[in-house]
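> call design_seq(struct)
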């Protein structure tokens, strides 16, 4: 396997994680549709940037009696709220396997071990493409999480944005309250909310406009959706940044479990050279084994 690819010419500033993991207290765990928002108070860590992620493990019920889960799980931060006692970090969860089942069941006051923030964050539009002045945020399913923080970052900078979110069905949807805005285009495959179909249907209508190339498309979601976004934007000359998922065991580049093929050949380690990547930099967004368990 080749080593990681070259650093992007205009790599965004990343917030560096303190060494080692640290214990945080769970301060809330609330249902949102078929998902949950788990919030923990990080009293010692720095404020993350939109698109960065954390490796999470519960203080109890993790690897006990030799049973799964053993390794921490990678989650993009979905909410960031600095305060006098530290930074409140929100994570959007869906209980689909041994790791997420334990995390989704954590009660207020439980201990949560975190390591982060890790990885490269999203860039501002003019850093992705010179002269870009707006943004389109495209999220799918549980992958809407990092876009919620990005929307707040763009709004604080006075950058106009449109938000497009898609879900499979009612049981696999939620987290809309994280976006704190009313102008959201919605799609669902079962038609329970918004447009009946894919969120990429909404994106296609938007990027076919005359001024689409003046903005940047930011996206996170299931691999098939991300590949559709990547291809659509490449055909129309629209700049993109994608937040990808890949199996991660360590989160800091040691295990090479999250290798993603580059368009120019070779591989990148998504945990240190991503998880946010330029659409044109990768060969495909169809990363095998993506998803939380």
């Amino acid at each position: 396997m080749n080593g990681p690819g070259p650093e992007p010419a205009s790599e965004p500033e990343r917030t560096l994680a303190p060494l080692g993991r640290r214990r945080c207290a769970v301060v809330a765990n609330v249902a949102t549709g078929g998902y949950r928002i788990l919030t923990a108070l990080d009293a010692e860590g720095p404020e993350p940037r939109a698109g960065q992620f954390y490796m999470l493990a519960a203080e109890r019920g993790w690897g006990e009696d030799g049973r799964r889960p053993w390794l921490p799980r990678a989650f993009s931060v979905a909410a960031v709220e600095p305060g006098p006692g530290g930074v409140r970090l929100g994570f959007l969860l869906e209980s689909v396997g041994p790791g997420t089942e334990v995390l989704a069941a954590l009660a207020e006051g439980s201990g949560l071990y975190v390591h982060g923030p890790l990885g490269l964050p999203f860039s501002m539009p003019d850093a992705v493409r010179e002269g870009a002045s707006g943004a389109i945020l495209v999220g799918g399913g549980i992958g809407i999480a990092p876009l919620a923080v990005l929307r707040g970052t763009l709004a604080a900078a006075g950058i106009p944005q449109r938000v497009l979110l898609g879900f499979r069905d009612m049981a696999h949807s939620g987290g809309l309250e994280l976006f704190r805005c009313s102008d959201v285009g919605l799609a669902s495959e079962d038609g329970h909310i918004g447009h009946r179909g894919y969120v990429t249907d909404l994106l296609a209508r938007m990027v076919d406009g005359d001024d689409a190339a003046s903005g940047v498309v930011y996206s996170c979601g299931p691999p098939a959706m991300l590949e559709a976004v990547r291809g659509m934007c490449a055909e129309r000359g629209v700049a993109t940044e994608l937040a990808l998922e890949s199996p991660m065991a360590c989160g800091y580049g040691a295990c090479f479990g999250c290798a993603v093929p580059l368009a120019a050949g070779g591989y990148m380690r998504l945990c240190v050279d991503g998880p946010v990547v330029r659409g044109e930099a990768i060969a495909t967004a169809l990363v095998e084994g993506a998803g939380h368990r």
